[in-house]
Amino acid sequence: MGRRLLTIPAAAIAIGFGLITLAGLVVGNDLGFLSTLVSLFGVRPMTDILLQLVVITVAVTVLIGIANLITVHFGRIRQRKGGWGYSVVLMISTLAVIILTILERANILSGSPSITTILLENVQVSIESALAGLLLFSLVYGAFRTLRNRFTGWGVLFTLALLIVLIAALPLPGFQLISNVRDWLMDVPVSAGARGILLGIALATVVAGVRVLTGQDRSYRE
Amino acid sequence: MEQIGLWAGFILTLMIFSYILGDNVLYRLAVYIFAGLSAGYIAIVTWDSVLRPWINGTILSPGAGIGGIILGAIPLVIGALLLLKFSPRFGRLGNIALAFIIGVGTAVALVGAITGTLLPLVSSTGSSIAVNRVNGILLVIGVVCTLVYFQYLARRTSSGKIQRGLHVRAMGFVGQGVIVVTLGAVYAAAILTSLTIFSERVSFLLTRISGG
Question: Do residues B181 and A161 lie in contact, with contact meaning Cβ atoms separated by under 8 Å?
């Protein structure tokens, strides 16, 4: 009974605040009675506050997530679980960034560029770029494996589109025709496919949103 | 200090590239360093750009009345309620916080999907016919067929078989082709992007080795 009682306010909160936000975002000044109603109840300022509250709450959840990450790895170190050495490295790098930033703010550490900037630009960005570069091997190997395991008509079409775009990117003379085909591919079928997929996602978002706001979807109960 | 940073970047890049030879300790170390640094930076940016200004402007603001303090504390209370999701006994209290986020988030997503994606895309797709008639019509056909491909409504035939109509199947077939070409082109673009980044990293390694 108590459990059931707790789901009712949750649904009321989701639907109520959702509808208020929707009204504040959608209803303009030219909708007659609706606009008057929205102005009368101060829905637009309320929507602004609600949006701010959600942004701050998400920021709080990000900090909770990072605190959880540190707690989990601290537990792994304490229990000497497999790979705990990696957890030590992770904890040191996380705490190093936070402590160095605090020391810089307190003017205990100084220098131009600052140590945290060097860490960000030379260490973090280097690793990020190297990981993105490593993706090249995974992508090429993945395409190769897909074609080797399943040779179908769609696979051939996929490879053709892939090769045309890749070959057209080569800065060599004599590829004008392929370059033109690539331009047409990007302008028509690729653009159509991308638009179709985006429209599908948007339509699905609308359907899911309406289901939540009408109380048919209550995924927050679990 | 900057030279130390550059050499650290050099060593970490090599550690990441060692994955080409297979999963190994060096690669994992670099990845954990990356995860740690990212977590640290995200924490700092979140605190500096979002939470500190909010707390200073509400709870710690000299002119804040009781209303301002309560308003400032609401997200912190919601965050605390979310923490209760870990508890089997009080987990349902966390649902209230989650419902608030989902309710407001859904409204924003709904408005964003309609005004940011649906209306502009439909409008630009329709107006593309005016720019180039043949390509515009092909584009509209491609978009419609792509959308048809993702619908699975079918009717039962007299023989009892459940089947989509012929025209829907034909349009779905064209749509599948359009999606395959799109994914092929996107895959190629991803390869080109990663190739560009990879060559930049190799250039960085060579510059470091040659003492540049």
Answer: yes
C-alpha B188/C-alpha B194 separation (Å) is: 10
Burial of B166: CB neighbours in 10 Å, binned 0-12, 13-18, 19+? exposed
Compute CA distances A167 → A68, A151, A158, whole Å. 47, 22, 14
Contact across the interface for A134 and B19, Cβ inside 8 Å: yes
Q: How far apart are CA A54 and CA A21, in angstroms?
A: 11
* Strand B162-163 versus strand B155-156 pairing type: antiparallel
- pTM metric for this prediction: 0.84
State pLDDT tens for residues A143-190: 888 878 777 889 889 999 999 999 999 888 878 889 999 999 999 999
- Mean pLDDT of the B49-55 span: 93
Write the CB contacts of B69 (distance below 8 Å, at least 6 apart in sequence). B58, B59
CB pairs under 8 A between A and B: 382
ipTM value, please give it: 0.84
Binned at pLDDT 50, 70 and 90, residue A221 comes out as low
Task: Using the CB atoms, write b or e for A201-221: b if 16+ within 10 Å.
Answer: ebbebbebbeebbeeebbebe
Which residues from B are below 8 Å from A96, CB to CB? Answer: 36, 40
Which residues fall within 8 angstroms of residue A206, CB to CB, at 6 or more apart?
B110, B113, B114, B118
Q: Which helix (H) or strand (E) holds B155?
A: strand B155-156
**Given 3-state DSSP classes, what are the helix, strand and coil percentages for chain A, each rounded to the nearest 5?**
80, 0, 20
